[in-house]
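[DERIVE STRUCTURE TOKENS]
===
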Amino acid sequence: MKKILVFALVAATILAAPPRKPKLVLAIVIDQFRYDYLTRFRGEYKAGFERLLSKGAVFTNARYEHYPTVTAIGHSTILSGATPSISGIIGNDWYDRDEGAKVTSVSDSRTQLLGGGGGIGSSPERLLVDTVGDELKMADGGKSRVFGISLKDRAAILPAGHMADGAFWFDTKTGNFVSSSYYFPDLPGWVKDFNASRPADKFVGSVWLNHTMTSDLKKLYPAEDSSPYGNELIEALAERMLSAEQLGKRGVTDLLSVSFSSNDYVGHEFGPDSPEVHEMAVRTDALLEKLFQAVDRQVGLENVLVVLTADHGVGPNPEVNRERKMPGGRVLTGTVSKAVVAALVKKYGEGDWVLTEADSALYLNLPLIEQKNLDRAEVGRIAAQGAMAVPHVFRVFTREQLNSGVAMDDFVGRRAQNGYYVRRGPDIEVMLEPYWIFGKGKATHSTTFSYDSHVPVIFMGQGIRPGRYSSTIAVNDIAPTLATLLDVETPAGSVGRVLSEMFD
């Protein structure tokens, strides 16, 4: 009997033992990478994507559960697990009524830009919740190191969280990677050395497809964003960081978030059906393998937990869709806001009724409403009626609908409510019909539809059972899953579930 009890206790102890923690968590985000890019170009993937697809847990039906699907919100979701209604990150930018001005998701006038031409810096201060990296650092007294890298400030800062040791992004004015005084008083020496080697300059005259990079440095740096070379700069900085910061080699779990931004710039410029987007996907495959090999040399891939996803997808160019007899078109910028103003003028008289220009998110002039002694909710309803009268407007939500939870009960309405934070949100949210977009010329994203919300989610590493998982999941599930694998607290705002079906 005693032997049985001892055996049971030993077995229980083994079952209760936490998993062996990885030395490094590598979180990879590909900006504007639809899920179907994995399947459409599958036959050409021979490197990094091939490794992930054959050795990783591949979730084929992962979606974002918020509106709008844009860069800042996606990046704030991945390692926090929170929706915008909780995180406060409701867009790339918004009108801040307290500041009386448009702000970005990471703008912070109390900080200074480091490594560039000077000016105001950026920080995660507007993010109301924490991330997996924050939980790691709180769990071990700050010993873990957490960093974020991207071409974009928001894509470097938001996944890394509040306690990060640094976030670095590309400055198109100087060709340097820069940061903010939020993290440290001066750039680390290794980043200065990296910048001093002028890595961005080496792409002068380079050719990809039929595009030749200019020799004018002032024009070259912005052009690199919309080329494969922007991603190559990110990967090169990541390799340098691995060595300089000794990530994964100090007896604790470190976290590195790497966001490849150039796919997004190219996608906007040329559209998802273009040869350029195809080329970017294939080049990303090779670049991922280069990063994996660098990590392997530094830490050993067997000691690394990798998660790959995207911050959003993208809709097709309406012109391309029309050629293949699909729905879609463009609504000229300003059309909805003009219709809203006209409706309010007709009802209440002349005035500067709308404070912002974005047709999809309209902030009403509250002082004017108070001056005229009007009811804000009633003004909102009249504004919504004006917006709904515009051809190809699909849904219009008022502040009161979103705040009270009475939006239409389908996935569109639920995602609109998930994306609404009352202290920052607009008075009117406007959505266009599927495949319709605002503006001229370029492709874009932001809708709740699958082409914008359906993205890859792949885990690879120790404790992960490789395979294809077809159940529907949310990108919000990444954060609590990582927290469970790392045996740390789940981030405070997380609404996701643990993807335990892939655990060994």
User: Anything to note?
Assistant: Residues 275-298 form the longest helix (24 residues). The chain has 20 helices and 20 strands. The longest strand covers residues 107-114. Residues 226 and 265 are 5 Å apart (CA to CA).
